[in-house]
Structure formats: C-alpha cells, structure tokens
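We both want to read discrete structure tokens more fluently, so let's practise on a single case. Would you write everything just below, so we can both look at the same thing?
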Amino acid sequence: MSISTTQNRPPSSDPTLRWALSSTTGYLQLGMLSEATHELRSLGLEYQADPEVLELRIRILIANKQCNKAAQLAKIATRLYPQLIDFYILNASAYEEKGNLEKAKEVWLSVPLLFQNSGFLHYKIARCEKKLGNYLSARKHMEEAIKIDGDISHDLIDYSKMGTTNDDRLH
C-alpha cells in the first residue's frame, strides 16, 4: 500500500475535513465503528492521506480488533509523518493489543531521536520489558523515565518490586 505525500491536500482547517473528523471522533467514542468508518470513507481521495484521517482510521482498526491492518497502516504513517509521535504510539499499541510485545518493543525502540528523551517512551518500553519478563531492563527504563519526567507515577509499574535478576517475579 502506498500513499503519496505529494498530492494536493486541503488544509486541516477545511470545514469539510473538520466536520468529518469531528463526526468520526464522536462515532468512535460512542463505539459506532461502522459509522466512523463510513464517515472517513465519505471524504474525497484528497483527504485520505491527511494525518488526522490516518490516525482515526488506525484507531478504528484497533477498536475493531484488526490489529494487523492497524499496525501496517501505522507503519506507513510513521514513514509519511516521522515527526508525529502519535503514529509510533498507535503502531506499538496495535502490536500490544495483538499480544506481540516483542514487535511493540521494536517499534518503541525505533522512535526517532527527537522523541527518545521522553519519560513516556521509556515508561512504555519498561511496560513491554516487564510483560516480557525482562525485569532488569524494565527497571532501567523505568528509572530513566522517572529521571526524565519525575511526574511519572511509581505505581504505573510496580517499580518497588522489580528485582535485580530476571528470575524475580512480580506479584
């Protein structure tokens, strides 16, 4: 699947786009996934590569448990819009939802340097590592997350119970 970024797209302030995005968001929040999908499909081709349209399409796919398609589209979106962290988040989320934590971790580790000094990023990697049983790495990333962003809650990952070996188990 290839989407050209060189096509002439209307600005995000375009009222047609704003209306469709608002309606789609409302449908998605209400769990009306077929209506949300229909709303995005009703937009013209010139809108389909818009980052907000792509984001909503990915969110709908994840909500529909179509995680493979969501991950594929999110990966394309990261190539189209590498400066937008949201597509990396959605890509990793699709893999997490699918239960593929190794692939989710791979996505988190592929985030551009611009975003790597983020407490949120290290927290997400720590979550994957914890679920994979890599407690030393989880602890390291959680420590880095807290160092970068002291507001990250210690309770999100039970930091105090992370042992010093991979044999330690969390309760």
